[in-house]
Specification:
Helix content: 25-40%
Strand order of the largest sheet: 4-5-6-7-9-8
Bound molecules: fe (ii) ion
Strand content: 15-25%
Order of helices and strands: EHEHEHEEHHHEHEEEHE
Shape: globular
Length: about 280
């Protein structure tokens, strides 16, 4: 019996030529390997599609969850869609290319260590991870603007038709929670999201006020509540393995060339996350 593995990668940021070379080298070890892509593939619709299609040609199953960069509407992107319409178009594009999304039935990994249900999530963030020393969302955001550490999402990630990103996030968290709650009791899961489900990974951020664009308090117990054997995330560009409440968390990002070039080791991607 052939033994595939579940691999994961995030933050490919393919607008950088050096990162495209890393993508070109992403290849399965076995024809049964699956690949999780946890967001921030690229900045333009065309780049995202090209990359996911390429990966789908190589891997038996590709499971994608959106990052913030997928949801940007850049001035030079011919695809002008914003917010929820853009997300819906990305989901259609993934379906056209045989890539699974948070809107599809969750795939069940039945290979080594299985069965585990692989659940890609799209929950965004709601500014509840306040900057240290601040007591409310408004103060936390003002503090970030005063230091100049402001996520580009404020300019490029439009929440349409929601009034703000926080409202869109609330709807997305409700939807993700509904899907996960519908799983049979005792289901073992691989939870996949661009933004970490718990706040602790952001404790090592160089600029702690950036945490408000990284997640939400509302997912703090999802890894225990929904039976995670591993929680896969990206966004922070700090690849590492940690454990919270006995659950393994894997940050599987590549990141920007200026970040990964400075590391002692070349990127070891994709990362095997299960079994
Ligand atoms: Fe990223
Ligand atoms: Fe990100």
């Amino acid at each position: 019996m052939s033994e595939g593995n579940l691999f994961a990668v995030s933050d490919l940021h393919v607008s950088y030529a050096e990162n495209r070379r890393v993508v070109d080298a992403l290849t399965p070890e076995s024809e049964d390997d699956w690949l999780i892509v946890a967001g921030d593939v690229g900045d333009t619709f065309g780049d995202i599609e090209k990359t996911l299609r390429l990966l789908r040609e190589r891997y038996a199953t590709v499971i994608w969850a959106p990052g913030n960069h997928e949801l940007w509407t850049l001035p030079d992107d011919p695809v002008r869609l914003r917010g929820a319409e853009r997300y819906d178009a990305l989901v259609r594009m993934c379906r056209d290319n045989g890539v699974l999304t948070p809107e599809d039935e969750f795939a069940v990994w039945a290979g080594a260590g299985g069965p585990v249900t692989v659940a890609p999530l799209f929950q965004l963030y709601d500014y509840s991870w306040l900057a240290p020393g601040t007591t409310g969302k408004k103060e936390s955001l003002e503090y970030a603007y005063s230091t100049g550490v402001v996520c580009t999402d404020e300019m490029l990630l439009h929440p349409d038709p929601y009034p703000d990103r926080e409202s869109w996030s609330a709807a997305r968290i409700d939807e993700s929670e509904r899907r996960l709650s519908a799983l049979a009791p005792g289901t073992r899961t691989v939870l996949v999201s661009h933004w970490p489900l718990v706040r602790q990974p952001t404790d090592v951020l160089w600029y702690p006020e950036f945490a408000q664009w990284c997640g939400t308090n509302r997912t703090a117990d999802w890894h225990t509540r929904f039976g995670a054997v591993v929680a896969v995330y990206g966004h922070l560009h700090i690849p590492r393995t940690t454990h919270y409440d006995g659950v393994r968390f894997e940050e599987v990002s590549l990141g920007y060339p200026r970040e990964w070039r400075s590391r002692a080791d070349a990127p070891q991607l994709p990362k095997r996350v299960f079994p």
